[in-house]
Fold each of these.
Amino acid sequence: MSQALSLLQTASGDDDAGMVVAGLVLFGPVIAPVLFLIGAFVVAHRVLRARRERRPPLDTGTLGRLSLLGLSAAYAAVSTGLMSGPWWMSESEYCNVIGFPADRITTRTFPLSMRCGPDGELVPSWVNPVLVAGLTLALAALTAAALTAYRARRRTWAS
């Protein structure tokens, strides 16, 4: 929450790029699931079509789209984690409103965390596992896409 608040405060100037980043963080919890669903539909459609045509289902394009799917899941997790809690309040006010002691507030960027006292975690528990899983999927799919493209290129050179 404090990360989102500081991002919005720095973007309040005349910097257009800062406003775009602030908008992406603000609307991320709404935009990211839509992107994820569209990406999942596109990947599923390509895999089913390839199976129907008796082609390998995971070609370079499908693997690239699969990596975008992982990145959109990571984007959803990060934007939801950054916007957990009302960003218009300070951390101490929000901790007092929800009933946690505001004497010691700690924030961390990775793993994404904001604690009010020893027990009051404000970032949902699913955020960090989804972030790591999405980034891992994106990295694995990009690596597989690069290897697939390399093998296809090597086959054309050999013949």
Note: The longest strand covers residues 105-108.
Amino acid sequence: MQDVPGTLEDYLARYNIPTFTVSTDNVKDLKRELDYAYSGMLTDNRRSNDTIQSRDILALDLDNINPSINTPDKLFNGLTELLGALEFILYPTIKNGLEGYGLRYRLLIETPPLLPDTYILVAKGFIYGLIDKQILTSNWDESTTRPAQLFSLPVRNQFTQGEVITYHQGAKLTADAIKESLPSFKALISKYEDETDFNHPPTNYVKRNADPTKGAYWLSEITQGIGEGRRNNTMYNFAWYWLVCGMADLGALPGLYDFLMTINQAYFTPPLSDAEINHIFKSAIKGYERVKERG
């Protein structure tokens, strides 16, 4: 790996952002042409799970953005509302705007040097915080929290409008701030990893855990009524759960779609439009299929 001096902001300011015309046919090949980075301390300048001493940039893939957040401005405003005065950097990734993918962005936050285990905890805390505030949906890629994971640098494609990199000026994430946030990070991780599980069907889940299944959790939430601000994300997550449970493999997609339409009319205020339901359902199916392909 090549060492690069200076701060992250200095490096990005002089980085020559490449431009590509991307399609579903060439996107995999184009990903091999991108520049990738890592920021932290490595043993012998080699990057592997065993050589990571520390990492000092939180690089989160925002691939599973809530379908209701459909413009870069909405995404930036949502992040600003959640992260408050915290400094962060946001830029699109190669698939951004491509049909079937929607918004695809990367969020960078500079941190003090974090040991690998602490990095995982902080990264998951931020991811689940984004899910909790309905900026992201629940089908996120766990590789984004791995300490050894590279992150791609900014890229411009035919869907990019305006400046590629957006900076939110603010306070640095300090060691004291992280220490104060660890209990809330752990609570979020417990909420989404211990109490709920998207990766097992209900029967397996009950055998492993006497708590209610995730399906029961969503039904309980929905039957209490879902108002504006929660409708899209709730519908997406509910559809996603039943896809993971095997509805697609059983050939039961029409039945699942009818079920979504029924609960929408009965419990969502105001109900989502048919076009919104169609978009959410198709997005959930595509997301589920991509996760299956990754194995």
Note: The mean pLDDT is 85.
Amino acid sequence: MNFRLRDRSIRFRLLSITSIVTFCFVIALVVLDYRREVQHHFTAKQSDLYEEAKTILPGIVHTREHGRVAVQNYIDDVCSRMDEQDSPSHHIAIQIDDEFYEAFTYSKEALPRLEPMNNASSMGDLKTHLGGNDEFLVGIYSDGNISVLVTEDVTALRSAIVGDELFRIAGIILMGIAAATIVHRTLIRLVSKPLDVLVEKVRAVGKGVYDNPIGEFGSLELNILSTEINYMSEALATSEVDRNSQLKKARKIQQNLLPNGIEIPGVNIGKIYCPAEEVGGDYLDILPQGNNRWLVCVADATGHGVPAAMSSAMLKTLLLQINDGDKSPAMILREINKVFMQVHVFGDFASVVLLQLDMNAMTLTYTNAGHDPAWYIKSPTEIQELKPTGTLLGIHEDESWEEYTIQIDENSRFAVSTDGITETFNSEGREFGKERLLDSLLLHASSSVAETATLVHETVRDFRATEQQMDDVTLLLIEFFHQEDD
């Protein structure tokens, strides 16, 4: 995955910045410490060289009386006593009037000439370029016509300093690593972990979990943020309680709109009505039309939840206004559609099945506005599917629908459901479907319509298993039976 810097977490950025700053600080400290050590060693070495030259001069004065050979032997003896490890490139030069004497602990070819050394050196210098690419520290002491010059190769001295400095550098690096670790742990404790807690709380609020308020943190800014999140959570919890209370009332109202307690002579009714949310967009109703005729309506507004429930409530209002015993189902549906087109939101539609039961003539007249499925079941072997006779409600204002009339037989059944049953899916992605619904209806045909509706609902739930209900589930069963005359 190609990460961009702006996509990385605050934790990563803070730790990166602190690591870079700590690394730069350690490097700067190492460089400054090395330069300080070099300065200190060079100053100390030059002071030693000066003191050595000052110490040698009285011996030169004393041995000078014994001749040139005595002077040379003296400085050779002094130089030979120098530790080749501490002073591997030690050099002593003596000038007495016009006479020059030299003693050294390294190759004579690497030795610079005394005259340029003498001309270029001063006690104020820490290092002096004497010729070629070599650098030397110089200590000079003069008294009268005698001058003593003691030099040390800077390269060898610097190598010795580096060796000593490596231990100090290792200590500084370890201190830097320890400091970086402390900073990292502090950032994780003070910033990263509190942010994780805040993120988890926000995610919980997004899922509707409003309990478990966030505690205090170790910084003012994070405490302010956590307090605001707690306030937000409390406000949302209060709003959710109010919303649920209102939806429960709306659900009760919608349940009261169902045809509960309706009794039709010669008819048994069974139904299930189970919205996917607190309220749903399925509409089920049975209205009297007079003269032992009844209007049955099953509708399914697009979507579910509050918007669909409002559409279904609007359909009931329109049906109550337009219902007339002199109007056929097709006429009623046409008038409902005209008004529905004027008030519905663009893109909202509804499928509707309208039945007119004439219990005197024992006929069933139906019209179907894009609703599926619906069946008239005479027997397990005689099943008539009531297919759509026109398009959905809300498509065209001047839409019309055909209607058909069926003769009702005793012990026959009418069944209609919404697509919340047939379009139920299980965990394997398989659809419940029309065939499985019809098979379930026929399987329980020996039971009462109320029991059959309940058993079909259980079959649908078992098929769905742990999957979430995605749409409203409605099923209406009507059984026609012979009623003895009083």
Note: Residues 107-133 have pLDDT under 50 and may be disordered.
